Amino acid sequence: MGTLLQRETADALLERLLETYRVYAPKVFPMEGCFSDTDSIRYGEIQGWDEIVWDKKSDYSFKEVLLPISQTILYFTEDEMKVPKEEEKGNLILVRSCDLHSVRRLDEIYLKNGAEDYYYKRKRENTRFILMGCPESFDSCICVSMGTNKSTDYDAYLKMDKQGVYLECQDEELGKILKAFQGKETELPVEYVTKNPVQTEIPEDLPEGIQNHAMWKEYAGRCIGCGRCNFVCPTCTCFTMQDIFYKDNDRAGERRRVWASCQVDGYTDIAGNISFRQDQGQRMRFKVLHKVYDYKKRFGYHMCVGCGRCEDVCPEYISYLACLQKLGRAAKEGQDNE
Predict the structure, then answer these.
(1) What positions does the domain 4Fe-4S ferredoxin-type occupy (predicted)?
(2) Does the residue 251 lie in any domain?
(3) Is 320 contained in some domain?
(4) What value does the mean pLDDT of the chain take?
(5) pLDDT digit string (tens) for 19-33?
(6) Nearest Cα to 77, choosing from 192, 213, 248?
(7) Distance CA 263, CA 67 (A)
(8) Is residue 286 part of a domain?
(9) Within a domain: residue 133?
(10) What angle do CA 290, 123, 230 make, to 5 degrees?
(11) Number of domains the chain contains
(12) What's residue 163's pLDDT?
């Protein structure tokens, strides 16, 4: 059971939430698109409900709220180090079901994959997720095939229409804030995608020899190694470290954690001028098999949540969905040859 608020009351509620939280949602960034005179839809802080984009998929995921593109993890001088202070306000992030499922993937890597990551943990513990309904699928989504089209693990569910703003809280803290505002008690079903334009079936077992299958070679000449597919993906977690030294004191500076990509040159470089995956086809193979096979083999479920952003953002129009379909056909051919 939730509460339907009239717009004036809903605006007052948002003002109250902004006192405690930074509220992030997909919004339009004018003239910041990849092409000339185009807009970009990405996550940013909002000050009003009307800023939220409901009818289009965000070009980038919510990931950069929990994992900033460049994050200072410590400051250092000649004889001491200091960790940056924690932000006073918490985070409220509006996400669709597929992105909400990706939070579990991030938690698995940063909280359960060995020692807990201190910087991720303190942001994660201070973050609440509000589910945005998805009445219909976008063209490149495969959330139904990946089982991420539905979710119940949200702190609140939000829907906007001409009548006002509907909010259903499962989080106790958010529920207390909502109770201070008068609205109509009602219940609206969560809007979920039930069918995608494209369906795909991930093979449970990959055939022998898939590592050297000819399908990977065609990507060697097409992929330019820009890494955009990794950067828009809500489940990619790799980073590198950079030490920044100040000009006025070259013995003082800061250490930053910066996003990295398995598709770019230098990612697998090690001492001795050795690089494990120089060919872009090999890098594509690594990424795809990690998303739908290696990760599941270790954790029990796919890393990919089927948001389709990698499909949308590739400047060479490389289709991740087509790659998965080829993978399925290769697995079937292997079964038929047994």
Answers:
(1) 213-244, 295-324
(2) no
(3) no
(4) 92
(5) 999 999 999 999 988
(6) 248
(7) 19
(8) no
(9) yes
(10) 30
(11) 1
(12) 79
Residue 336 has pLDDT above 60, yes or no: no
Packing angle between helix 320-336 and helix 280-289, nearest 10 degrees?
80
Q: pLDDT band at residue 253, thresholds of 50, 70 and 90?
A: very high
264 neighbors 239 (Cβ within 8 angstroms): no
- pLDDT tens-place string over residues 154-208: 999 999 988 799 999 999 999 999 999 988 999 889 999 999 998 888 877 777 7
Using the CB atoms, write b or e for 9-40: b if 16+ within 10 Å: bbeebbeebeeebbbbbbbbeeeeeeeeeeeb
Residue 284 CA to residue 277 CA, distance in Å, equals 10
Which residues lie across from 81 on neighbouring strands?
Answer: 76
According to DSSP, the β-strands at 90-95 and 127-132 are parallel
Give the chain's end-to-end CA distance (angstroms, integer): 54
Question: Across the chain, where does the E strand assignment appear?
Answer: 2-5, 21-29, 40-45, 70-76, 81-82, 90-95, 127-132, 156-161, 164-169, 184-186, 239-245, 253-259, 269-270, 274-275
Determine the structural domain holding residue 116 and report its residue range.
2-66+87-186
Closest CA to 99 of 48, 43, 139, 55: 43
Determine which of 77-81, 138-142, 208-212 has the lowest per-residue pLDDT on average.
Answer: 208-212
Tell me which amino acid residue 16 is.
R
Strands 40-45, 239-245: pairing is: unpaired
Q: In 22-83, which ranges are continuous DSSP H helix? A: 63-66
